[in-house]
Amino acid sequence: MKAIVYRKYGGPEVLQQEELPKPIPKDDEILIKVKATAVNSGDVRLRKADPFAVRFIFGLMKPKKPILGAVLSGEVEAAGRNVRQFRIGDEVFGMTGMSFGAYAEYKCLPEGASISYKPKNITHDEAAVIPFGGNTALHFIQKAGIKQGQKVLINGASGAVGTAAVQLAKFYGATVTGVCSTANLKLVESLGADRVIDYTQEQFTDNGETYDVIFDTVDQISFSRALRSLSKEGTLILGASGLSGMLQGMWTSATTRKKVLAGVAKETASNIAFLRDLVESGKLKPVTDRIYSPEQTAEAHTYVEQGHKKGNVAIAMAMW
After folding, report:
1. Are residues 122 and 24 in the same domain?
2. How many Å apart are CA 176 and CA 147, to the nearest integer?
3. Cα gap 313→309, rounded to integer Å
4. Are 168 and 143 in contact (CB under 8 A)?
5. What dihedral do alpha carbons 106, 96, 55, 26 form, nearest 10°?
């Protein structure tokens, strides 16, 4: 099979096309013909080994898992003898977890992985961009217990997680304020935000308003200033924080009435199925900035790394 691999850490140029053996599904696995994947921030961080600590998990000198890609949409081509839920020909989408591997023509996943049937009303390219931002946003929004009538602010509202978070917060009945750049104001408004703040013109931490939940999807706001913009028993979600933010959050949660949520979003098949239902009912829409061919994967990484994408960037693996 064809695959985009990286044999060493570095810039986008380390991504190269190779021919590899086609995987064979185990008894509890399905073989998926990958029709689309996406380039997410996690792919970029692993490719660069940034932070350096990723080397202790994924390979000190070179990558242990040379095929990136944490999300996919495709078709079941084969199934192990113990598989019961999925059949050959089923269209599926979801997440590959720590195995990655979606930058390839084929990927084997356990039947119990974080996958579900693809939404019927969207394409594979659209379906592939739902799981990463959608699952992350859903994990934290459910953990925060966002409910009807709450005031919620989404910082980084035009990114992969942010565009999903705006829509999910509205689904749960919140009054949503999105924070983004001038170029993305209309996009965030179109997703249902009740108010949009242009951070190049105004800092939400300076306007005197408080919020029940602040969801920082991009790790670009002052922790202390964000806390001042929370209500007395509000929740701050650090969706992209490093270790220092997590430690600050633990201390704040332990010593005040305010709550800080951080860490890695749990991937579950039930979350993916829930997102599918929202897409099919029209309550969640995929947001895709650009679609690249597999041969343009390095170019896609370059674009994502610039940090200005609107929503998501897809790779149309079906072009192979």
Report:
1. yes
2. 11
3. 7
4. no
5. -60
